[in-house]
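A.,

Following up on our hallway conversation. Structure tokens first:
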């Protein structure tokens, strides 16, 4: 749903300019230094990028899902590291509170996420619990007005920068599956939290993941999201339904960028006495990529509109993530191929994008998990 086209167009124009004039020229620097420049973060704050999806009453822009995706298409056109810095505040780092939090939790945290004063992150994955999220082992044992958290969370995006963690932990050890899990919003400065060393990643340099370790970490009972035990897994799944649509849109933006670069290269690069773009085998890769991007774009927008109507989009969100991220991988591969040997050289941004976008098919649920969710929902519908 687009509430006001003119306002959205103004915002999109501003972001397009920011991406083109400020972010794209700094991509190489960020990747080389593996560091996000503070002046870029400050500009992001000034533009309101940390609060795109935070409701207006808590200081954000309160974008609808469809509006958010249009922004994600634009942001996707530059290195994913830039998006990642403000991505968790707009997605997995804040959504748990927005969707299921108490009024007190919303008032306490959302305005600070919206301004970028603090960064939120999402702690679901563990060393032994990835795709099988309901098997997580971190415990939260009630002790008077507190819960004592113990366990290790792994590959947590933005953890080294974060001031809060949305932590999924087992409050009822007798329930082995999803029903025993609760969600908490935990302040970084709580004693009993330590961080692992920053992970060395294949791509997306400039953003960080690491372990978050809870050792007898005592959090107040008021940290329990929604004040209700046992609904934390569902909270996490709802957060991911939304997050997966966002990643789908970022995949579309990244694919558009890679294809633009490959097209320009194909038009300029001459072999056999003519631009390689005049060869039909190159044209096939350009055309297939274009068609696939268009299909993914239509798909994610449709899913977003359904979500804005209040419909359950678990299936559509997984369909979009599966298709858009796999599409992005195929486009990345075609675009390296179009560049030939140059595509393997870091001077050309396609080499970096090829590595950066590989993560899209893994995080917030692998492609195989999306397939499982889609099929499961289909089968359940027949049973109902
Ligand atoms: N919204 C609301 N509730 C949901 C839901 C959703 N999208 N998906 C599942 N649920 C509910 C189910 O309805 C079920 O409720 P009941 O117990 O009341 O029937 C409960 O949650 C458990 O669901 P399910 O049986 O499907 O759980 P599984 O253990 O089989 O897990 C998958 C299913 C694979 C979908 C889940 O573990 C998953 O998403 N894994 C990937 C995790 C992931 O993306 N990690 C990435 C790291 S985070 S960046």
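Then the amino acids I'd put at each of the 384 positions:
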């Amino acid at each position: 749903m687009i509430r006001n086209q003119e306002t959205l167009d103004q915002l999109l124009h501003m972001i397009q300019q920011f991406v083109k004039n400020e972010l794209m020229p700094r991509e190489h620097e960020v990747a080389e230094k593996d560091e996000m420049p503070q002046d870029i973060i400050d500009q992001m704050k000034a533009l309101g990028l940390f609060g795109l999806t935070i409701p207006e009453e808590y200081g954000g822009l309160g974008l609808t899902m469809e509006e958010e995706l249009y922004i994600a298409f634009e942001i996707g056109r530059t290195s994913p590291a830039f998006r990642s810095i403000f991505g968790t505040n707009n997605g997995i780092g804040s959504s748990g509170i927005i969707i299921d939090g108490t009024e007190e939790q919303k008032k306490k945290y959302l305005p600070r996420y919206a301004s970028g004063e603090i960064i939120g992150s999402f702690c679901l994955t563990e060393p032994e619990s990835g795709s099988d999220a309901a098997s997580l082992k971190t415990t939260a044992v009630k002790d008077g007005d507190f819960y004592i958290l113990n366990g290790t969370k792994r590959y947590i995006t933005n953890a080294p920068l974060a001031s809060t963690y949305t932590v999924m932990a087992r409050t009822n050890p007798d329930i082995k599956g999803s029903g025993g899990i609760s969600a908490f919003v935990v302040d970084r400065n709580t004693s009993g939290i330590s961080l692992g060393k920053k992970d060395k990643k294949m791509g997306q340099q400039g953003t960080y993941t690491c372990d978050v370790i809870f050792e007898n970490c005592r959090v107040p009972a008021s940290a329990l999201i929604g004040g209700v035990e046992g609904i934390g897994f569902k909270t996490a799944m709802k957060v991911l339904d939304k997050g997966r649509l966002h990643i789908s849109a970022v995949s579309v933006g990244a694919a558009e960028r890679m294809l633009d670069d490959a097209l320009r290269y194909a038009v300029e690069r001459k072999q056999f006495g003519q631009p390689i773009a005049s060869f039909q085998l190159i044209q096939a890769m350009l055309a297939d990529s274009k068609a696939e991007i268009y299909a993914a774009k239509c798909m994610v927008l449709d899913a977003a509109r359904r979500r804005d109507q209040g419909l359950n989009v678990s299936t559509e969100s997984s369909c979009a993530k599966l298709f858009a991220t796999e599409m992005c991988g195929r486009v990345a591969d075609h675009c390296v191929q179009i560049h030939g040997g140059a595509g393997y050289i870091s001077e050309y941004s396609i080499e970096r994008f090829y590595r950066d976008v590989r993560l899209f098919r893994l995080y917030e649920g692998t492609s195989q998990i999306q397939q499982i969710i889609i099929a499961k929902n289909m089968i359940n519908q027949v049973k109902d």
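Residues 92, 122, 124-125, 131-134, 178-179, 233-234, 237-238, 240-241, 314, 363-365, 369, 372-373 surround coenzyme a persulfide (CB under 6 Å). Curious whether your intuition agrees with the design.

B.
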